[in-house]
Amino acid sequence: MKSRLPPAAMLPRDLRDAALERLQHAPRILGDIRIEGLSFIAPIWRPLIEALCRVVRVEWIAPAGADTEWFRGKIARNDSVLPSAPEVVSCADVRHEVVESLRWARQLIASGTAKPNEIAIASPNTTAWDDHFLACAEGTGFRLHFPHGVSALATRDGQRCAALADVLMHGLSQQRVRRLFAVCRGQGLPQDELPARWLDAIPRGAALSGLEDWVRALETATRRSPGNVSVEATMRLLEVLAKGPAAADEAAAVFLRGQSLRIWQAATRSAPTDAIELSLRSVRLGAETDAADAVVWCPASDLAAAPRLHVRLLGLTNRGWPRGSGEDPILPSHVLPVDGFDADPVARADRRHFAVILGAATGSAVLSRSRRGAQGGRVGRSPLLQDRVGDVLSRERIPEHAFDHADRLLARPEDAAFIDQIGSANRCWKDWHVEALTEHDGCFEPDHPAIKRSIERIQSAASLQRLLRDPLGFVWKYALGFDVPQQREHPLTIAPDELGKLVHELLRRAVDALEPEPGYARASDVQIENALTDATGIVHAAWPLERPVPPKLLWGHTVDYAKAMALAGLLRKEISEEGTRSWTEVPFGQPAGFESGRELPWDPTIPVEIPGTPVRLRGTIDRLDMRSNPFAVRVTDYKTGMVPNNAARIVIGGGSELQRALYALACLQLLEEEPKVLARLLYLAGEPLEVKMKDVDVVLARIGEFVSEAVALLRKGSAVPGRLAYDRTNDLRLAFPASPGYERRKRIAFGRACGTLSKFWSAA
Fold first, then answer.
1. DSSP 645-670
2. What pLDDT digit, counting tens, does each position of 687-724 carry?
3. Which end of the chain is more exposed for a tag (fewer CB within 10 A), N or C?
């Protein structure tokens, strides 16, 4: 330990011994000594204090409850003013304690009872309250001082360090790299020389977990947006990050400067680099305020050294004050008493600080505890409260004095009602509790422009399914623009719809490789397998550059699973006639200017409409097989999910199975001759199962009626939740009230409003 100290530093024991050797110089250097405010002096310094008493005059102005039994000098006590009788209160939780403390402090200042420098709030351990005080202090109108410092992670400089540690410890994921480059910009470091918004050229969903992935992604971005990405400069920075914790100092020099660099160096000095995430949490920065003109929030030990007239003590729970010192599991107290190692156990110190603070609180004192801890569990009273009876404060109570604007609105609900957002929320809450339909239950003006635009837009199979199965969700998503954020981190598995896209991508690439020569219909099984193997290699490498995928090993298994399903679908071609062509992912109803880059059986920009409705369609057909003699087409909708019960009886599935019928409609409208159309579902999971659709014209007529009913419902100003609304897979379910009572309460009114639309939801 001594060998690692700098030359100008000494251990406490050596420092004390050196002072004792030079004790004869104390009268000239120190003169009379006064110890003021301390309630405890560590045993290591007591021999020096006792020796000083023999050569100079030493006076200890000790607060009530101070440990002075060992001291042989003069002890002075200030007991002329009696302390105030403390008030006891009980709060709901930790944050509620903070809110009540700030209300109390502001009331003292506003009423003229106390100045800010006479007010203090304290607890033995401030960790549970610090973040809440930081969040709430800004709007109080008075200064709040943190003598123990502010957590470095609560500052922008600390967040730069946290972002760098996250990348070094956990790897080069895109989300981590984006965060690091965003927070470290503007410091005059190498990353500032990169092109502005260079990360915009990289797809946000790309799963970039290694240098090789980043190289390929940057090269692809350079080809797409020349001049917007600097591959060499970016890779130099990423190579430093890829070295991990071993390159912590090198990475800090590249990405940090000034205060952020000092925070990083303090964290690496206190613990090994591998523990940088933990050591950063313990780094604290000095507060910018001054205690001389501010309310103080501090540990009880600090307040006991400099008590104030008005105090509020937090955390008086059975485990919070006094804190338990615990017992060493290796050397329990019956083997070796803890006092032999700890001269001032934490429980004893907490009791002493409590007595000192209350003894000096001649203005006012409030003892506060929470009924629930930071994790939500119930907690008991502190033994320091003894038989004191306290007031139970409700979280929703109207305060006598508010501490900020939001708290003031809570105290004056009549003023808050005039704020548009609050008034709207109140009306919504009331409307949700009446049985009739209101403007907060999907009712709006007939022929509303937003509804008209949402219906006139070109519909995909997904939006049409939402329109038919959940009109209210359709309005939320396509008229109001509601959406659900997508997961960007590496998932362990891909979502079912993403698995479907993966299988479709393999099928498209394999069939395109076989067309026009030798042709998918005439290709042998070996040729199909080879084409699929080549497609698998391309997709395996390309997908991580475009969207989130599982980690490397799991991604390989996922691609193999998708390949097996794709092969099962390709081998069930059931066509071998001459003149037969096959296409996959055939677009239709696309906007003007769309270019496919390959030969197609029709012009993909020709609009496709559902007869008798204003709805236009766009989409892509999973597979289209066309025979020239006699002219006939077969459309296939691939399904990667499990085969449902009674799959052969499902026609439109209440609006959930529309794709194959819409594919058939596109063929009927886009092909010049009137072909014979066969539409089928092909389930690929497990043993492949083919389900053919009978009477295509009848099914299309039924879908037209279904769409007409849904459109008429929206146009007359009513959007009701359908069968999809309360389904677990509905990503918009979060917009509904959490209580299931809402659905029960509105069920009759919704049923009346939807009219004959409900009969289609039950249709097979």
1. TTGGG-SSGGGT--HHHHHHHHHHHH
2. 888 888 888 888 889 999 999 999 999 999 888 888 88
3. N
